[in-house]
């Protein structure tokens, strides 16, 4: 079946033949008959750009690989690549376990989490998904299934390797024990960017989970004002008596309209939203469910449609500690240009993994959503790319949909090393995605 | 690949010295194209420089030799990978009087202006269909929208080309590949040197600007200037007796 696929940003659709294998053997079978235009793996399509597309080729939808098991004594989970973190959490949390890392949505697959080496609000203490992996099963271009461990080069070319070394069919990783399904959260508001950075630097390490939401439309003396939400898994005694400590049944409450006009999100509506959000976020402490704390957006099904038919771009970069000047310049430029972003988050990263193309490195990461139709956006982001690369930082491939091959190469110093390992595992170039073509990986 | 903001990476220009074609390429490069292939007769004999591209490749190409066109497209793919934009911009205008005097020359011009585009277009379309993306930019002309007595050899070839391009666009529908038909009026430039400009004339730069806008918005037909569209809605239905008396 041929379908037009996009990422979560709904830009640049391309057609591909879709196959949905139900077992690792079926995956191997598909690879043995790989078409000329190559094969791409796809999970739940939550990468924003063209990472899980393959124009004119075959896309292997991995969501049919769904078996998993938990070792209750060690917390080790063995999961097929198509299992979603949503399904895992729904089963694990009531049994007292939580995934080691969750991105801002639960609707990602284990395969996607490994391939992008995803990070969460706990990166500053727990690093990214790859750091918690025991082993991986990878079906390579020759149709062979290999078990990889962190001692293997191919393991670290696959973690963060954006699906270009093979199709991951299974992962084994360690989960964390929890007493409750709640988070004890402290909310703080900061006055401006400097205050935000200072506060995070001084006190982030007291919390396992932290993030700052920045009001990008605030200007002048308030530029960079933020709401910090930081928390830890709540203990049983933090809950009111009688509450079921491990209750967890997150659902989406709303569906976004099937169609929204271009320009619904404009400086006026977004400024109003930001203002309301800032004011509503009263400083103080509260106990929150896992879902509202980690995945507030998951309450609205298909919220990406709100951006209208032209879709949107997410720009996420990281700059190392010591390069705050670059962060400041970018934030002030965004604020001065009145870029319409209503979900800008800032986060401090801790140490990265050995993943050769993994995104996180110790430093500051900023992520923002921008309607693709915004005027002058291409030039603005190109200028940011240069700044970020000069500062020794990089742009996140799982979010990227517009970078050039040259800037990407400048940002990822281990690209050549990764290519060598990838070429060893896939000499004929079977694994191909639109992102890989665009970035000439 | 076309990115989320509509920028592309590669372009193939057939008729690598065409003024209009190069003006389009120049703008594409400004907007982010990094890799350019110029295919021209006697490419080694020199083509104007393309400023700002990371790679510029040259290929030999003769529109009058359709048996070689498949290889040219393949060679371009070998050089830069997927073709994001393909622009066949070759063409010869000639004069009606000369064609009247030399029917062999007329047939030769038609072989370039129509036949060459058919074979290049079909080869390019096959590649774009396989890729699942890419745009073929076809330089038609208002001369083919309603053929005039003053240049009916050139005009009829353009009429054929325009119809071919629309049919090809329909054939590619749903494949991810697109055809954009461009219909300029009189373009002041090398091809029309020495002729006095017709009303609603434009420059190669203006044609190129319109092509860039069209690529961005995914237009199927672009008139340059846009007013020609309304004008030709009328021209098309003018009685034959009136049309016949058009001075040029
Ligand atoms: C609302 C929202 C919030 C997000 N927040 C965060 C965040 O906080 N932190 C973060 O790190 N990311 C975040 N992301 C991005 C997301 O976590 C990643 O893009 C993730 O890779 C998506 O997983 P997926 O299953 O949807 O994979 P897809 O988007 O389908 O694919 C992503 C990549 O993984 C590859 N892949 C998928 N399955 C396999 C497989 N079985 N074998 C080999 N390769 C495979 C694909 O080829 C592709 O390159 C967010 C995304 C959204 C929509
Ligand atoms: N100019 C106008 O008024 C106008 C109006 C409407 C449409 N158009 C169309 O737009 C296109 C571009 O025109 P232009 O204004 O850019 O004209 P141009 O500068 O004269 O370019 C035409 C190019 O075609 C090439 N060419 C001719 N015969 C060829 C052959 N057999 N093989 C390979 N290349 C050949 C020429 O190559 P050499 O350099 O080797 O001679 C020349 O570079 C043409 O299709 C034209 O019909 C032009």
TrEMBL record, chain A:
Molecular function as annotated in GO? D-arabinono-1,4-lactone oxidase activity; FAD binding; L-gulono-1,4-lactone dehydrogenase activity
Where on the tree of life does the source sit, at the highest rank? Bacteria
- Keyword Magnesium in annotation: no
Q: Name one Pfam family in it.
A: ALO
Q: Quick check: keyword Oxidoreductase in the entry?
A: yes
PROSITE patterns annotated for this entry? FAD_PCMH (PS51387)
The chain positions of domain FAD-binding PCMH-type read 11-178
Q: Which InterPro entries match?
A: ALO_C, FAD-bd_PCMH, FAD-bd_PCMH-like_sf, FAD-bd_PCMH_sub1, FAD-bd_PCMH_sub2, FAD_lactone_oxidase-like, Oxid_FAD_bind_N, Vanillyl_alc_oxidase_C-sub2
Q: List the GO cellular component terms.
A: membrane
In this chain, the stretch annotated as Disordered covers 1-23
Q: What keywords tag this UniProt record?
A: Oxidoreductase
EC number of this enzyme: 1.1.98.3
Give the protein's recorded name: Decaprenylphospho-beta-D-ribofuranose 2-oxidase
Whose protein is this, by species? Answer: Planomonospora venezuelensis
TrEMBL record, chain B:
Q: What is its EC number?
A: 1.1.1.333
Source domain of life is Bacteria
User: Keyword Oxidoreductase: yes or no?
Assistant: yes
The UniProt entry, under CDD domains, shows: SDR_c
Q: Which InterPro entries match?
A: NAD(P)-bd_dom_sf (IPR036291), Sc_DH/Rdtase_CS (IPR020904), SDR_fam (IPR002347)
A Pfam family of this chain: adh_short
List keywords of the entry alphabetically.
Oxidoreductase
Q: Which GO terms describe its molecular function?
A: oxidoreductase activity
Principal EC category: oxidoreductase
* Family membership: Belongs to the short-chain dehydrogenases/reductases (SDR) family.
Report the protein name in the record. Decaprenylphospho-beta-D-erythro-pentofuranosid-2-ulose 2-reductase
């Amino acid at each position: 079946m041929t379908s037009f696929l996009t990422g979560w940003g709904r830009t640049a659709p391309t057609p591909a033949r879709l196959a949905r294998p139900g077992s690792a053997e079926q995956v191997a079978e598909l690879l043995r008959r790989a078409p000329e235009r190559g094969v791409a793996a796809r999970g739940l399509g939550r990468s924003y750009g063209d990472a899980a597309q393959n124009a004119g080729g075959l896309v292997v939808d991995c969501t049919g690989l769904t078996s998993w098991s938990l070792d209750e004594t060690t917390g080790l989970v063995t999961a097929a690549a198509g299992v979603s973190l949503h399904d895992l959490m729904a089963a694990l949390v009531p049994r007292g376990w939580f995934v080691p890392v969750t991105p801002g949505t639960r609707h990602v697959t284990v395969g996607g989490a490994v391939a992008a080496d995803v990070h969460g609000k706990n990166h500053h203490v727990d690093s990214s998904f790859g750091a918690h992996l025991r082993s991986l099963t990878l079906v390579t271009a020759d149709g062979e299934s290999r078990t990889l461990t962190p001692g293997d080069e191919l393991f670290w070319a696959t973690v963060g390797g954006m699906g270009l070394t093979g199709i991951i069919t299974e992962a084994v990783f360690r989960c964390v024990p929890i007493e409750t399904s709640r988070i004890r959260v402290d909310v703080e508001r900061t006055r401006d960017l400097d205050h935000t950075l200072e506060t995070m630097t001084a006190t982030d390490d007291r919390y396992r989970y932290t993030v700052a939401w920045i009001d990008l439309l605030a200007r002048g003396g308030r530029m960079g004002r933020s709401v910090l939400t930081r928390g830890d898994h709540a203990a049983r005694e933090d809950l009111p008596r009688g509450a079921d400590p491990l209750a967890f049944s997150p659902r989406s409450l709303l569906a976004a309209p099937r169609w929204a006009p271009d320009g619904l999100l404009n400086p006026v509506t977004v400024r109003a939203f930001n203002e309301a959000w800032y004011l509503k976020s009263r400083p103080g402490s509260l106990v929150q469910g896992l879902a509202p704390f980690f995945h507030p957006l998951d309450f609205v099904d298909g919220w990406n449609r709100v951006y209208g038919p032209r879709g949107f771009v997410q720009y996420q970069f990281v700059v190392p500690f010591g390069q705050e000047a670059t962060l400041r310049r970018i934030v002030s430029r965004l604020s001065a240009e009145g870029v319409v972003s209503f979900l800008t988050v800032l986060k401090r990263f801790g140490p990265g993994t050995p993943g050769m193309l993994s995104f996180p490195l110790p430093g500051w990461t900023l992520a923002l959503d921008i309607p693709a139709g915004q005027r002058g956006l291409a030039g603005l982001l190109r200028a940011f790319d240069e700044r970020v690369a000069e500062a020794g930082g990089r742009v996140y491939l799982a979010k990227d949909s517009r970078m050039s091959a040259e800037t990407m190469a400048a940002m990822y110093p281990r690209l050549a090393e990764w290519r060598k390992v990838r070429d060893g595992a896939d000499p004929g170039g079977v694994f191909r995605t639109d992102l890989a073509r665009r970035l000439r990986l | 690949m076309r990115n989320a903001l509509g920028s592309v990476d590669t372009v193939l220009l057939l008729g690598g010295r065409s003024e209009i074609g190069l003006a389009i390429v120049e703008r594409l490069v400004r907007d982010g194209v990094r890799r350019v292939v110029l295919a021209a007769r006697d490419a080694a004999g020199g083509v104007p420089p393309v400023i700002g591209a990371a790679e510029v490749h040259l290929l030999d190409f003769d529109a009058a030799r359709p048996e070689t066109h498949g290889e040219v497209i393949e060679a371009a793919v070998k050089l830069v990978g997927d073709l994001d934009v393909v622009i066949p911009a070759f063409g010869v205008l000639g004069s009606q009087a000369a064609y009247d005097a030399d029917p062999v020359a007329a047939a030769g011009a038609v072989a370039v202006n129509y036949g060459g585009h058919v074979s290049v277009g079909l080869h390019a379309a096959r590649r774009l269909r396989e890729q699942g993306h890419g745009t073929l930019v076809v330089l038609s002309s208002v001369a083919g929208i309603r053929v005039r007595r003053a240049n009916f050899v050139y005009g009829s070839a353009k009429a054929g080309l325009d119809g071919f391009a629309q049919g090809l666009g329909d054939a590619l529908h749903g494949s991810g590949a697109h055809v954009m038909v461009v219909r300029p009026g009189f373009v002041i430039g090398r091809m029309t040197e020495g002729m006095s400009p017709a009303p609603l004339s434009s420059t190669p730069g203006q044609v190129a600007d319109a092509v860039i806008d069209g690529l961005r918005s995914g237009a199927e037909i672009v008139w340059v200037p846009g007013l020609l569209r309304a004008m030709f809605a009328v021209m098309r239905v003018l009685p034959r007796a009136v049309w016949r008396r058009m001075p040029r």
